[in-house]
Amino acid sequence: MIVLEFKLKGKAHQYRIIDEMIRTAQFVRNKTLKYWTENQGVKLVNLYKQCAIMAKEFEWASKLNSMARQASAERAIFAIQRFFANCKAKKPGKKGYPQFKKYTRSVEYKTSGWSLSTDKKCLTFKDGFAAGKFKLIGSRDLHFYAPDEIKRIRIVRRADGYYAQFCINVERKEEPVPTGKVIGIDVGLNHFYTDSDGETVANPRYLRKSEKALKRLQKRVSRKKKGSGNRKKAINKLGRKHLKVSRQRKDFAIKTALCAVKSSDFVAYEELEVRNMVKNHKLAKSISDAAWDQFAQWLEYFGKIYGKTVVAVAPQYTSQDCSNCGNLVKKTLSTRTHICGCGVILDRDHNASLNILAKGLKQVGINSNTAGHAEINAWEQTDLYSLVATSTSKSTD
Asked: Is the pLDDT of residue 289 over 60?
C-alpha cells in the first residue's frame, strides 16, 4: 500500500460541508463505541449493523455514504481490538481503553461515494452531502494507477486547508544496490545519531528554534476575546506554525532514514521506549523534538522497500559496555566520553553504536567479536550483502 496526498481546492461553502461530513463520521464512531460499552457481550462484527440503524434513526447521518459510515465504525472497532490485544499481552501501564472523540479531523471513504474526473485532477463527492467537485493540488500523478487500485480516500482537515489521501493497493519495490557496508546507529540529543563509523548527524531541533515564534503566537491567542473571529484567526496562525514544525521534523526523519538505508546493506538501531523516556520532564521536550520513533519507522519502511536488512536491538547497556573488551564501564548521562581500562577512549555515542552493531549482527546469526572491531571492518572485503541476506533468511525460516 502507498498513500498519495493532494490538497483540495474548492469554495468556502464546500469546506463547510466537509466539516459536516467530519462531524457526522465522529458521531458514528462515538455512537458505535457507546453501543459497545452498553452491551459488553456484543460481537465486534455486529457493530457494523449499527451503521444502518443510525442512518434510519438520524436523517442527517444517512447523508454520509454507507461505506464511509462503516469506515467510521471501524475506527471504534480497531480501538476496541487494540485494547483487548494490550490486555492479553499484559502491556505495562495503561491499556488504552477506547475513548470518545471530540475533535476528529478526518472522514474516510472506501470505494463508493466519490469519483475522479477523466484527467484525474478533480475529486467529486456523490453522497447525500453533495460537497461537489474539488481540484487536486499536488506533485504526484494518479494516471499511473487504475481506479480499482484506489481502496480508500481519507479527507483530512489541517490548519492550512483540506487534504485528500489516496490509499492505493500497489507494492512499492526498489532494486537493492549492494554497498558492502554495515552500520549501527545510536540516537541521542547532542547529535541526532552517531553511527559505528564515527559519523554524526546534527540534531536540527526544529521546535527549539521555533519556540520564540510559538510563544508570541500563543500570547496573541490568549489576548483575544473567546469566541471572536480574531481569536479564531490567531488560533489558525498558531496551528500553521505547529504544522510547519511537524512537517520539518517529518521531512528530516524521512531523508535521514533514506540516506542511512541506501548507503548500507545492514542497519542496526536502538528500539527505544520513548513513551517511558518522556516521563523525565527535564528531557521530555528535547526527546519529543528529536522524533526517534518516527525515524525508526522510516528506517523499517525503507528497509523493506530497498531490500535491506534493518534490525532493532534492545538498548540495555549499549552505552555502559565497552565495545572493545565488553567490560561494564558505568557512567552518568553527563559523561560523554567512554574510557575503559583496556585503553579504549571513544565518544560515548560512538561506543554505543559499535555495541548496537554487534548486537544486531548477532541477532541475525552473525557472531562477531568486536575486540578492536577489526573483524567488522574485514567483512567489508567479502560479499557482505549476500552474507547478511543469507543469515536473515535462515533466522526467519
From this structure: yes
